[in-house]
C-alpha cells in the first residue's frame, strides 16, 4: 500500500469496483458527519450553553477561568499591542510567562471579535464545542482520504476519535487538549511531503501549520510529531515498501528542511520565551509519577459514560479531567480481535501500514504508564521505559498519562478499518455477526454523558459597571477576596471580562497559571508550580475561604500584611456577595469577611461588594 494515495480496505484483494462515489453523494456524507459531530458536541457541552455567563465546569472550574482569561487577554493584546507570550497583569510584580503555559494565541486572536462583543464565557464554550466537533470531522476526512472508502467506516472512526473518553474528560476545562483535530490535520500534511515536485510548497505549508498549532496545543503537537516519526520509520523499514520509501526519502527530507526553517523562524520568539524567557521554569508543575496512566484504567469505564450510570465508572485517574484512556474491556477485546483479523487479511504492502500503526499504539500505550507501573491505584516497583525519558527536554514537561490520547487515534483507525471490512461483507457470516455485535457492545458503554456544570458567582456590578476605576489608579493593583487561585478563580475571571470589554484595566497579585517555584531568575532552574509562591497574607484569605478558619490576628500579622501589600502595591481589596469553589465546593465567605475586617477594619459597601482601601506601606495600621 502507498501512504500517499487513498488506500483500499485492509484485505488481501481489492474490491471489484474501486470507483469513487459521485461528488454530490460525497458531500452529502460530509455534511451528515459534520452535523452529527456538531450535534454530539452541543449535547456534551449543553450545560454550559444553557447559561454561559453563570454556569461553569464543576470538575475543573479553575482551568475554565484560566482559558477565559486568555481569551480576554487576546482582546487586550490586540488593543494595546502587548506581548502575547508574557503578561504583567497577573502575579504582580513579576508577571507570567504565557509561552510556558498554554497560551492558545491563535484562538485568542481569531475569536477576539466574539470575545469582545459576547464575552470570554461565550467564546470559551464556542471553542470547546467546535474543538470536539472539528476533531471528529477532521478524523473522518483523514480516514476517508487515506485509509477507507466507506463514509460509515470513516464516520464511525472519526466520531470515536473526537468523542473518546479521553477527550470527553479533557472537555472539563482544556481548550488545548480538546483540539484533537491537530493530529489528523498535521499527519495529513506529513503524508503529503513525499509528493514529487512539491517539496517546497508542502514543506512551507507544514511549517506554517506547526507554528500555528504550537500556540494551540504544544504538548499535543509534540505527541503528534513523535507518533508520525515512529510511524514513518517503522513503515519505511518494512520489506514490501522499502523501495518505495527510498524513492521518496529525498523529497521528504527536502520538505522537512523547509518545514524546519519556516517553523523555526515563526516560533523563534515563543520558543525562546518558553525555554529562556522571564518567569520560566524547569519541567512541569505536576508530578509525572502521579499523572501516569494506571494499567487497569485501560480496562475501566470513564466517569462520564453510559456505563457510569450503572455504577461502572472508575476513579483510577488523578482527577476527572485526566481520564485519558478508560476504554473498557469490551473495546480492548474488540481492538485485539480487529488487529488479528486485519493482519490475516492484509496484503504484504498493507501489512506494512498496519504494522506501523500497531507499533505507534504499542509505544504510546507503554509510555503512558509513566516511570513506574501502576495497577489499581498501587505503584509497583517495576521501572518502565518512560523513566529513561522523564528528564529529557520536552518529555520533562509532559504528563505521561496524556500519551494515551495517541492510542485513541490508533483505535479509531482500527475501528474504521474493521468497519470497512464489515461494509464490504468480505468476512464469514459468523465473524460478520460477531464483530458487529462486538462494536455495539464496545461503544455503547463509553457513549459520553454531558460534562458536569455548576453555578458560579456572577460578575459584580462593581466590576461590570466600571465603579472600580474610582478606587484604583490606571493599571493599578487590586484583588478580589480570596486571592485568585485554581480553586478560587473568580478574581481572575473578572479581570478577563474587563479585558474583553477593551476599557481601562487593573492588575492582580497571584492568579491561576504555571510559574516558577521561586520568582525571578532563581526559579528558572527549579520545577514549576501552580500559581505564585504563596505569601502569609494571601494564605490568610485562602485558608479562611477553604476551611472557614478565621485566625486571631496580631500586630505582627498586620506588619506582615503591610509588607505584602507594599510588595504587590495593592490599592484595593473587595469581597463580592458570592464566591465560587470547584466541584460544588462550599467556600466560607463569612470567614473571609471576618478575616479582612479584623485585618483592615470595617469595609465600605460599594455597589454589590465590600471594599477595603489600601495605602501601600501604611495599611493595615497596628491596633
UniProtKB/TrEMBL annotation:
Coiled-coil portions: none
UniProt entry tagged with the keyword Zinc: no
Keywords: Membrane, Transmembrane, Transmembrane helix
Residue spans crossing the bilayer: 29-49, 122-143, 150-168, 174-191, 203-232, 252-275, 325-343, 352-370, 399-419, 431-451
Residue span, DUF6311 domain: 69-397
Keyword Membrane on entry: yes
InterPro entries in the record: DUF6311 (IPR046278)
Tree of life domain: Bacteria
Biased composition (Low complexity): 1-14
Positions of the UniProt region annotated as Disordered: 1-23
UniProt name for this protein: DUF2079 domain-containing protein
Source organism (scientific name): Actinoplanes flavus
